[in-house]
Amino acid sequence: MLAKDLSHEELIQIVKRQAETIAARTARVAELEKQRNKNSSNRHRSPSSDGGVKKVHRTKSERPSTTRKTGGQPGHKGSHLPFSLHPDMEEIHSLSDCSSCGCSPVIHVDETGMDILPKRQWVHVYNTAEETYYSIHPKRGREAIEAIGLLLIEMKKQKERYQNMGLPPPREEMERLSAAYDELVSEGCEKNPMFYAEGTLKKKGSKKQSPARNMLDRLLLHRDKLLLFLHRLEVPFDNNQAERDLRMMRVKENISGVFRSSEGAQAFCQTRSFISTVRKKGLRVLSSLQQAVEGTFVFS
């Protein structure tokens, strides 16, 4: 039917329906663009979550080559913080490790994405205040952790719980804080009920929910793990130890580019594990590497 055959009222109804359709599709396009533009630079997400974004990778430094050596140049006035024989304040840090094996009661675990040609893999770190271990695995999460099978984790399972160095919080205070946690999570669940996105009800697997509801579900599922720091003084509130040791991996990728093989990536992880552990123990890196190559290095 042609437009000339329609009445004025019919044309108005058609225009209204078209306007509603355009508005709905415009809103849908805006929502999809918002989801696509989310990344680690504008959201509270780790850089590893940007794995699907195509990046231009460098295989060498962009700094132009010069005849000058790296580091401070001749004539450069250096500066440093001199050692003082009379410090303004002294603070005693008591022993917090096992007197038998020297193992820390807390092991930090984290991972980050790394481009290792021909695809993206994961660098896992397991560390304590004195040891660091890096490893490459094609997957992340529990499957990778079980596959790597680190000696530190086995030691941690077999050893008894170490005696706390200080008094734990009173039981009444821990119960009060735990109850407050449960109350806040319950309030959040009431304000964010389970709602599955349209089109996902008939699909297999997990259903798509709002980000707020997904976070609440994780808070409920991992409650005991999240509140463990209240009951165990040796368990820190954050996982900064693992994140600090992973920072070097991000610096390496940003400066040098991708790994060309899994063998090269694994060799780099082994070297970095040794260097990080040596530094944490207060040993000289270069002399320790030389001794390791000669086969004479021993951790004291």
Largest sheet: 3 strands, antiparallel
Q: What is the H-and-E element order?
A: HEEEHHHHHHHHH
Give the uncertain stretches in residue-range form: 143-165
Task: Give the fraction of residues assigned to helices.
Answer: 40-55%
**Measured distance between first and last alpha carbons:** 91 Å
What class would the helix/strand composition place it in?
mainly alpha
β-strand number? 3
What is the count of DSSP helices, taking H or I runs of 4+ residues? Answer: 10
Overall mean confidence score, pLDDT: 76
Which strand order does the major sheet show? 1-2-3
Outline type: extended
Beta-strand level of the residues, as a percent range?
5-15%
Radius of gyration: 28 Å
Structure description:
There is one protein chain. Residues 143-165 have low confidence and may be disordered. The longest helix has 29 residues, at 8-36. The chain has 300 residues and is mainly alpha-helical. 43% of the residues lie in helices and 8% in strands. It has helices at residues 8-36, 142-148, 151-158, 171-191, 211-221, 223-226, 228-231, 240-256, 262-280, 285-294; strands at residues 108-116, 119-127, 132-137. Among the domains are: 108-165 and 237-294; 171-195 and 208-231. A three-stranded antiparallel sheet has the order 1-2-3, sandwiched between helices.
